[in-house]
Amino acid sequence: MQKTSSSPFDYFSYYKQVLTCEGVSLKTIAEKVGTPTYVYSAGSFLNSYRKLDQGLSGLSHQICFAMKSNSNLSILRLLASQGSGLDVVSGGELYRAQKAGVAGERIVFSGVGKTVQEMREGLSYGGKGIFSFNVESLPELTTLNQVASQMKTKARVALRFNPDVDPKTHPYISTGIKKNKFGMNRKEILEVLKNLDRFPAIEIKGISIHIGSQLLSLSPLADAFDRLASLVDFSSEKFGLNLEFLDLGGGLGISYGPEKSVPVSKYCELIQKKFGKKSKYQGRFKIVLEPGRQIAGNSGVLLTQVLYRKERKSQDFLIVDGGMNDLIRPALYSSHHEIVPVQQELLKGPKKKARVVGPVCESSDFFAKDRPLPLRLKEGDLLAVLSAGAYGFSMAGQYNSRPLVAEVLVQDGKFEVIRTRNSYTDLIQGEV
Ligand SMILES: *Cc1c(COP(=O)(O)O)cnc(C)c1O
Fold first, then answer.
1. Ligand 1: does its nearest atom lie under 6 Å from the Cβ of 210?
2. Is the whole model's pTM more than 0.70, yes or no?
3. How does DSSP classify residue 325?
C-alpha cells in the first residue's frame, strides 16, 4: 500500500512501524479487545460527510446516511451530530434511528417490501412521522394510503423512479435497470400521478432514485439525473405536480485499492449543475442524498490475526481468525480488499502469492486470492483488511456459530469499544 497524501486510507497509516488509526496503534487495540475486531476512524467518517455537505453548499439539502452500510449507534450519533439524517430500510433500522436520537424530519424510508407494521412505525415516528416513505410500487402505495387513513394522518411520499440506466457495477448491487426489483418506471409513476385522488392520505413530496452501488463513473448518474428531470418537468406540466424535494440516492463508489473513484467534488458539481441555483430549477428543490459506502467504506478496517500458514506450491493459505461471516463482501461480490500487516517491518522481504482465508467451512470463505503477500507473515501476525467500514459488520452473521465480533471507534486520539464481542450465550439466545 502506497502511503501518499491522497490515499483513500489516510486515516489508517504507519507510525513508528505500527499501523495506526488516527495515531492509535492497532496492535494495542488487538491486545486489549482481541481479534477479529472492526476499527473505525471518527475523523474519516466526519471528513467524508463534510466533503459532501460542503460540495452541496448553497443548495438546500439533507444528507441521509444509508444506515444499512454501517448501523452502529455510535456511528449514527457521530454523523447525526453533524446534521446527518438517515436512510433506513426496515423497522429495525427505524428503531436504531430512534435510539440514536435522529429526528423524523431527517429520515427517509426506502425498500421494496415495507410491512404494515413498519409503515405504522414510520408514520408515528417521534409523534410526527418521518420525512419520506420512498415508495417502490403501486400496491405499496395503496397499502400505505390505507394505513395512513386508519391512523388519521398523511404519509409524506417520494415515488422511487427506476430510470433504467445501467450503472455498470456488480449485478448484485445494481438497482436502476428495468429488470431489477427496485422502483417504478416512468409509465407507472405517471399512472399514479393521474390517479392521485385515489390516495387521499398520500402527499407526493418528492421523487427518488438510486441506481446502484459502488459507481465508478458519473455518466450513469448524469443519465439518471436527466431522466429524473424529464419526468419532473413532464409531471409538473401535465399534472401540476409541485415537488418539495428530489432524492438522488446514494451509490458513489470508493477506491478499494486498484480502482479510481470519482472525486466527491465532481459528483457535487454534477448535482449543482443539474439541480442547483444556476440550473433551470434555480435550486427550487431540496436535494436529499443517501450515501452509505462513500462515508463509511474507507473509514473502517477489520483487524484479524493469522492462525496458520498452510504451504502449497503455487500459493499458500494464510488462515486468519476472521471469516466470511464477519466480512462477506469478498464471498458475495468477489470484491477486493487491501490487506496489510499491522507491523510495518513485515512488509519487507520476498513475497509469495497467498490466499487469505477464514475458518468457516465454505470454499467461498476468503478475503483475498492470488495475493502477493510477504513470505514472512506467519502465525500470530496481525493483519488489517482495509475498506471494511461499509457493508462489513452490518452484513455480519453467526454462521458456524461464530459470535459477532467487536467494534471499536477511534476519536481524538483515544479508542472506545462501541460494540462488545458477543459471547457463546448470545449465540443461543432465544433458542429452546
Ligand atoms: C443501499 C442503498 C443506498 C446506499 O448505497 P451506497 O452505495 O452505500 O451509497 C442508498 N439508497 C438506497 C435506496 C439503498 O438501497
1. yes
2. yes
3. T
